[in-house]
Amino acid sequence: DRPLTVIAGPCQLESRDHAMMIAKEMARACDQAGAQFIFKASYDKANRTSLKGKRGLGIEAGLKILEEVRAEIGCPVLTDIHDAEQARIAGAVVDVIQIPAFLCRQTDLLLAAGDTGCVVNIKKGQFLAPWDMPNVADKVASTGNENILLTERGTSFGYNTLVADMRGLPEMAKTGYPVIMDATHSVQQPGGQGGSSGGQREFAPVMARAAVSLGIAGVFIETHEAPDTAPSDGPNMIPLNQMPKLVQTLMEFDRIAKDDPIRL
Amino acid sequence: DRPLTVIAGPCQLESRDHAMMIAKEMARACDQAGAQFIFKASYDKANRTSLKGKRGLGIEAGLKILEEVRAEIGCPVLTDIHDAEQARIAGAVVDVIQIPAFLCRQTDLLLAAGDTGCVVNIKKGQFLAPWDMPNVADKVASTGNENILLTERGTSFGYNTLVADMRGLPEMAKTGYPVIMDATHSVQQPGGQGGSSGGQREFAPVMARAAVSLGIAGVFIETHEAPDTAPSDGPNMIPLNQMPKLVQTLMEFDRIAKDDPIRL
Amino acid sequence: DRPLTVIAGPCQLESRDHAMMIAKEMARACDQAGAQFIFKASYDKANRTSLKGKRGLGIEAGLKILEEVRAEIGCPVLTDIHDAEQARIAGAVVDVIQIPAFLCRQTDLLLAAGDTGCVVNIKKGQFLAPWDMPNVADKVASTGNENILLTERGTSFGYNTLVADMRGLPEMAKTGYPVIMDATHSVQQPGGQGGSSGGQREFAPVMARAAVSLGIAGVFIETHEAPDTAPSDGPNMIPLNQMPKLVQTLMEFDRIAKDDPIRL
Amino acid sequence: DRPLTVIAGPCQLESRDHAMMIAKEMARACDQAGAQFIFKASYDKANRTSLKGKRGLGIEAGLKILEEVRAEIGCPVLTDIHDAEQARIAGAVVDVIQIPAFLCRQTDLLLAAGDTGCVVNIKKGQFLAPWDMPNVADKVASTGNENILLTERGTSFGYNTLVADMRGLPEMAKTGYPVIMDATHSVQQPGGQGGSSGGQREFAPVMARAAVSLGIAGVFIETHEAPDTAPSDGPNMIPLNQMPKLVQTLMEFDRIAKDDPIRL
Description:
The structure is a homotetramer of 264-residue chains.
Chain A (H helix, E strand, L loop, with lengths): L4 E5 L6 H18 L2 E5 L18 H15 L3 E4 L3 H8 L4 E4 L7 H9 L3 E5 L9 H9 L6 E5 L2 E2 L5 E2 L4 H6 L5 E4 L5 E2 L8 E2 L4 H9 L5 E7 L13 E2 L3 H17 L5
Parallel strand pairs in A: 1-2, 1-12, 2-3, 3-4, 4-5, 5-6, 6-9, 9-12, 12-13
Antiparallel strand pairs in A: 7-8, 10-11
Helix pairs in contact in A: 1-2, 1-8, 3-4, 4-5, 7-8
C-alpha cells in the first residue's frame, strides 16, 4: 500500500495567485511529510444553500488556473463537475474529475465522467448507504474506466447535521477502489446557518485521524488561509497554517495503519 | 382553501396507451370524489440505483404522450426534468415542471425551471430540513415565477430508509406556497433491494391520510395496474384499482381538514 | 371500534387543587366532544435532564392526589413507575400503570407492571423500532395480563431531536393491542435547552391529528394552564385552554377514521 | 497521559472457570502489550430484547466470581447495575460500577452509584447527544465522587442500527473525565434479529482503532472464545483468540495518539 494521498485546496477558486499560494504550501507540506498531494478547487459552486452564496470564477477561468497550478507546482489537480458537458471540458484539463455527493446517482454524469478517461472521484451521497456505492461505481466502470475513487463525506443524521460512519470506509474498500475520507465536509452542518451551511472545523482532524488509522488511501481536506472570510465552506475548512502539522501527524498514523490495514 | 389536488400516475411512461389508461382511470376517480387531478409521469429515470434499471422512453417520445394525455383527458400534466435544457423543452409542453429531490439545490436547474413560467414542483431533498426549503424556493422565485409547489417525500433515516416527518408539512406551508405530500416515495427504501430500491406500499395510505388531515394542498401518489411488474418503483406504488377508494377516503379527511387547516 | 381515548394531564403533579382543576376541565372537554378520558400525571420525574430539574411530589403524596381525582372526577387515572416496588404500590391505586420510554426494555419492571393487573401502557423507547414492541409487550403478557397499550412518543433522529414515524402506529397495532399517540413528547427536543429538554408545542396538534386520522385508539397529551412556568416539559405541553377545541377537532377526524381504520 | 486501558470480558458471566479463563487470557494480552486491564462481566442482563434471552447467574453468584477473578488475576473488575440497591451490593465488591446506556438518565441510580465511592462508568444513552453527558456526570459528581468514566456505545441511527460518532469522544473529554470507546456495542444492531440483537463483529476493530487514534483513555470490548454460542451479544463480540493481536495493534496507535491527543 502506498503512502497517504492528501487531496487539499480551497473550497472555491478565488484567483490564480490564491490557488498557487495554497497549492505551493500544501505541496511543500505533503512533500516534507512523505504524503502524495492532489490540488483540489472548484470553479463553480452549483448548489449553494441560497442564491446569495458566491458561485465562483466559472469553468473557463477556473480550468485555466488549475492548468497553471498543475504546470507550476507539478501536482495532479482535481475539480468537480455538474453536467455531462462540463465533464468533457474539465476532463481535458484535470487529472481527477469529481462527482458531487448530491449528484452521485445521476447516470449521465457518471458515464460522461467515466468517458473522460480521468480518475473519477465519487462522493457518496449524504442519502446513500456505503454498500450502495458499488452500483454507483459500476456506472463509471461500465465506460471501461476503472480509475475510480470513493469518498465518504458524511451521512444525513437528523436535520442540518451529518455523521461520518467509520464502517463506511472498509465497507466501500471491499470494491477494491481506493477510499478517501473527506474530513472537512463530514463536519459540515448543511443549511445550519440559515442562508448558508455551518460547520465544526474543530472536528475535521478527528475525522481525518480516525479514518487514516484504518489504512485508507487518502484524505480530502479543504483549507484556506483565512477560513472565516472564505466565500464558501469557511466554517468547516482548516486554516492553512495548521495543515503542515496535521499532515505530519496523519502520516505517522498512516505508516502503522498501512502495515496492517483493516480489510473486511 | 380549495379541494385536495391529487398528482398521480405511473412512475415512468411505458406507452401512450398505458399512460392514457391510467390518466383516464385517475381522472374519473378524482372527478367522482371531488378532487382536482394532475397526471404525473417521467420520460427518463435519470438516477436509477443501478445501471440495470430501465430509464424510460426519452424526452421526445415522452413529451408527445404527455401532450396527448393533456389533450384527450383534459387534465394538467407534470413531469420531472434533470438539466436546464430539458426545462426549456419540457416546459413548452407540460403544466408542471418537477425538480427531483436529489437535484433540489442545483441552482441552474431551479432557475431554468422558473424561467419556463410553468408551475414548479420542488421535491425536498432527503438530506434537507423543511426550514431550508425557503432558500430553495427563492431560487425559483428570483425568476419572477412564484407558481411553486413544495413536496415532502421523506428524509434520510439511517441507511436505506426514509421517514416522513409530519412537522415538515406545516413548516413548509409557512412559505405561503402550496404543500404536497408524496405518499409513495416517502415509503421508498432507497437501494433496499441491492440493485434497486425497495418500498413499503402498505404504508403509502398511512402517509397520505396523516398528511391530508393537516389540511395540505395535495398528495402525490404513484400508481400502476400491476406494480410488481412495473419497470421502476413497483415496491412503493399503489395498485390502480385501490385508488378510487383511497381518493374518496382522502377527500373525506380533506373536507374536515380544510375547515380548520393547521397553520403555524 | 370505540371512540378516541384522550389521556391527558400535567407532566407532573403540583398540588391536589392543580390536578383537580385540570382533570375537571379535561373531563368536561372530553365529555362534550364524546371522547373517553384518562387523567395522567407523574409523582416523580426520575430521569430529568439535569439534577436541577424539579422531581415532583413523591409517590405517597402523588398517589393520594390521583386517588382523589379518580373519586371526585370519576375518571380512570394513569401514572408512570420506575421500579418494581413502585409498580406494586402505584398499582394498588391507579387504573393504568405506565412504563417510561427509557425503561421499556427493563424486564423486571415490565413483569412487575403486568403483575399488578392494571392496564399497562408501554411507551416505545426512542431507540426502538415499532416492530420490536411485540417482544416488549410479551414480557408483560407473560404475567397473564394482556391489558396492554402501546404508545408512540417519537424516535431518535440525530441529536436533541425526535421524529414521529406514522408507520409505527399501524405497525404496532398488528399486535392487536390498542395504540396511543403521545402528541406532546413526540415534539420534545431532548436536552435541547442545555440543562433541560426543549419542545415544539406548536407541532403537537400536528402529531395528534395525523395519528388520529389513521384510526388509532387514543392520544396522549400533556397540558397545563401556563406551560411556560410548568416545572417540567413546559416547551411541549399544550395550553389547557386550547384543549377543548383540539379534542373536538380530533373527534371529527376520529369518527371518519374509525369508519375505516388503517389495518396492515 | 497514561497507556490505554482495555475493559474486556464476556457479555455475561457463565461460570467461575469461564470468567477466570477469559480474565487470565486478557490480562496476559494486555500485560504483553503494555495496556492496563479491567475485567468486565454482567451478572444479570436486565433488558434483553425478548423474554427468551438468558439473563445470567444473578447478583450473588456473579459478584462472588468477580471477587475471585480480582483476587486471582489481580485486576480491577467492573460490572453493571440496574437499581440503587444493586449499586450498594455490587459497590462493595467491584472497582468499577457501570451504568447501562438505557438507564443513564435515571437520577436515583446515578446517585446510588456515586455513593458507592467506586469508579462509575456511565454509558452514553443511544438517545443522547455527547454534549448532554455533562448533565449526567453531574448527577454522579453531586455525591462527591468524581471518579467518573464516560463511554460512547453508539447512537440511534434509523431503526435497528447504531452509528458511532467520533466527534462524541473529544466532545465528552471536554468534561475532563476519561473517555472510553465501547467498540463492540457500537456495532450492535438492536433488535436486529427479531428476538435478539444482531451485530457486526467485523466492524468492532474499526471502531476501536478509529477511537484510539484520537487519544482516548480506554476501549471497552466484549470477547468470548466462541461468540456464536455465547448466551448474549454473540454477534458483536470479538473472538478471544483475536484479542492479543488487536490489543497490540491498538497500543501502537495509542502511543502516537497519546503524544498528541485531540483536545477541543
